């Protein structure tokens, strides 16, 4: 079994970042809500207490019992975690005179061994707190101070508990803590004794073995979207159970230009058993006349389930439905804050298992997107597939504002293909996180060859992001935009105007619907 570091989540906006940083050290880490700590087994090598929007001084603050953890495994408290440990053992935490947010330096380091090994005085760290630790408990000693915060780091005195407890006021997980990675390495590798052997190859080996065990001799069905997640999930299952994996790729008539054929060919090249299903008319009928974004999404979700269900009934003995669920989806649904409000209802084929009595298998449920991509590379999948921009399940339907017709889809496909091809040619495709073209329900006047035109407008969108939760518009070169614009207007009859979307998320979203 894989060794791991457990992260108790107290609701910090950085909790996921802690997990990612530790995984960068090739050590698997898992986030659990602060009040759902599993019993410690041999795989758990260390425990981290995250930061929190709460103050330990509030009555409604989160106060789990630390007794089962302290001394049993090395513990690292970060910010709220550090304040909570101080309070728990009888130290004092008070409101600080000024909220401290941003850069600071560890001017004094009292022990350059253990947690702070290899870090010289002056090391830049990043702070984000309103409370401060005034007195540390008796069993502990001071490890480092900044100009403003005396207790920047403290730890248990040697031998005070079985395993050591370290606490830091700053955030080692953010990039602005320049030696944060060194500190986490000290904690996870040197202090907790993790081996750092969790690599993509290791993940593949372990996951394939556990899929074999989970699925046994049964058959599995999987919906392929052409996206990274479902494709990597398919490859893992294929390695595990070979021909007992059955894949569907549905042409919903809302894919990009030529996408259905291109993707089918690349799947065949990877040895997958894929059935392509032409359901274009069914989707167009379901969408006919609908203009409301949520109504369109619901109609698409329902049609997906209907098509999937009907096709699946042609197969016998299917026991499992595989899904490309990834870690952020899982964290969201178990988070301390509870599921967040629905801005847009993301579709998936999740309604199926109940309808068909299928069990779920989710080989990627503990990976972040970039980790999924690395696993894909490890599996030998083509770069073109792995580096594809995310593309929403409802496809072009949410990039055509207003009602959907096959003619509008064809128009948008042409403009979009020009944009994406040009991004690739210019070497910009991989620098952008996601790009796409939006067909606007707007007609405007133009002049072409001395003739008046009255045609549609498209918007180009390109964003940089790490997870799609927040995004900035990409600063694509003007010359590049100019060439895309003239190419679209000259080559796509029906479009006489191109605009560029310069909105960030929030307050805008990446898609327009
Ligand atoms: N055209 C399609 N044909 C068959 N299944 C699909 C199709 N589109 C989506 N699905 C299924 O629905 C799931 C959700 O699709 P969606 O595109 O919303 O997911 P995603 O999180 O972007 O993942 P991916 O990287 O696989 O696209 C996919 O993982 C896939 O199993
Ligand atoms: O699988 C999906 N099903 C959906 O219904 C859906 N809606 C938006 N997206 C994608 O999610 C990311 C964030 O998009 P928004 O900023 O528009 O919410 C972007 O990457 C969007 O493309 C979807 N993906
Ligand atoms: N980032 C944090 O964990 C902050 C902890 C606590 N809410 C404070 O303001 O001090
Ligand atoms: Mg997708």
From TrEMBL:
Quaternary structure note: Homodimer.
Keyword vocabulary terms for this entry: ATP-binding, Glutamine amidotransferase, GMP biosynthesis, Ligase, Nucleotide-binding, Purine biosynthesis
Gene3D superfamilies hit by this protein: 3.30.300.10, 3.40.50.880, HUPs
Active site location: 79, 171, 173
Gene: guaA
Iron in keyword set: no
Domain GMPS ATP-PPase stretches: 198-388
Origin: domain of life: Bacteria
EC number(s) stated in the UniProt entry for this protein: 6.3.5.2
Name this polypeptide is given: GMP synthase [glutamine-hydrolyzing]
Residues engaged in binding ATP: 225-231
Pathway: Purine metabolism; GMP biosynthesis; GMP from XMP (L-Gln route): step 1/1
């Amino acid at each position: 079994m894989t060794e791991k570091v457990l992260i108790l989540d107290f609701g910090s906006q950085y909790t996921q970042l802690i997990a990612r940083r530790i995984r960068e050290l090739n050590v698997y880490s898992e986030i659990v809500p602060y009040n759902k700590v599993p019993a410690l087994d041999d795989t758990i090598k260390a425990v981290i207490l995250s930061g929190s929007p709460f103050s330990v001084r509030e009555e409604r603050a989160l106060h789990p019992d630390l007794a089962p953890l302290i001394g049993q495994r090395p513990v690292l408290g970060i910010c709220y975690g550090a304040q909570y440990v101080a309070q728990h053992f009888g130290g004092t935490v008070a409101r600080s005179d000024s909220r401290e947010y941003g850069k600071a330096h560890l001017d004094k380091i009292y022990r350059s061994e253990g947690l702070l090994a290899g870090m010289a005085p002056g090391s830049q760290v990043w702070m984000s707190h309103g409370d401060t630790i005034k007195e540390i408990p008796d069993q502990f000693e001071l490890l480092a101070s900044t100009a403003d915060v005396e207790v920047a780091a403290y730890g248990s005195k040697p031998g005070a508990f079985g395993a050591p407890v370290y606490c830091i006021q700053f955030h080692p997980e953010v990039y602005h803590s320049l030696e944060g990675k060194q500190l986490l390495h000290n904690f996870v590798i040197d202090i907790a004794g993790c081996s750092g052997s969790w690599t993509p190859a290791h993940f593949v080996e372990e996951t394939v073995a556990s899929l074999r065990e989970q699925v046994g001799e049964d058959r599995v069905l999987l919906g392929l979207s052409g996206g990274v997640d479902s494709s990597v999930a398919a490859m893992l299952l294929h390695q595990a159970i070979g021909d007992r994996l059955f894949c569907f790729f549905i042409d919903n008539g809302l894919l990009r230009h030529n996408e259905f054929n291109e993707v089918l060919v690349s799947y065949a090249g990877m040895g997958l058993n894929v059935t392509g299903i032409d359901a274009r008319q069914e989707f167009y009928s379901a969408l006919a006349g609908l203009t409301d974004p949520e109504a369109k999404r619901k109609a698409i979700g329902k049609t997906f389930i209907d098509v999937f269900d009907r096709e699946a009934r042609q197969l016998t003995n299917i026991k499992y439905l595989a899904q490309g669920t990834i870690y952020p989806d899982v964290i969201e649904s178990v988070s301390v804050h509870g599921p967040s409000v629905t801005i847009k209802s993301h579709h998936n084929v999740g309604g199926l298992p109940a309808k068909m009595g299928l069990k779920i298998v989710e080989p990627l449920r503990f990976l972040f997107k970039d980790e999924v991509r690395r696993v894909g590379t490890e599996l030998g999948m083509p770069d073109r597939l792995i580096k594809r921009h995310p593309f929403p399940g409802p496809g072009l339907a949410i990039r055509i504002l207003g009602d959907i017709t096959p003619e509008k889809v064809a128009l948008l496909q042409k403009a979009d293909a020009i944009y994406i091809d040009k991004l690739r040619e210019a070497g910009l495709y991989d620098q952008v996180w996601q790009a796409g073209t939006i067909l606007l329900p707007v007609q405007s006047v133009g002049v072409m060859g001395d003739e008046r035109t009255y045609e549609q407008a498209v918007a180009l969108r390109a964003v940089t992001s790490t997870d799609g939760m927040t995004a900035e518009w990409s600063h694509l070169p003007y010359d590049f935009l100019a060439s895309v614009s003239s190419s679209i207007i000259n080559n796509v009859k029906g479009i006489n105007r191109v605009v560029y979307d310069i909105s960030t998320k929030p307050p805008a979203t990446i898609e327009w619907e």
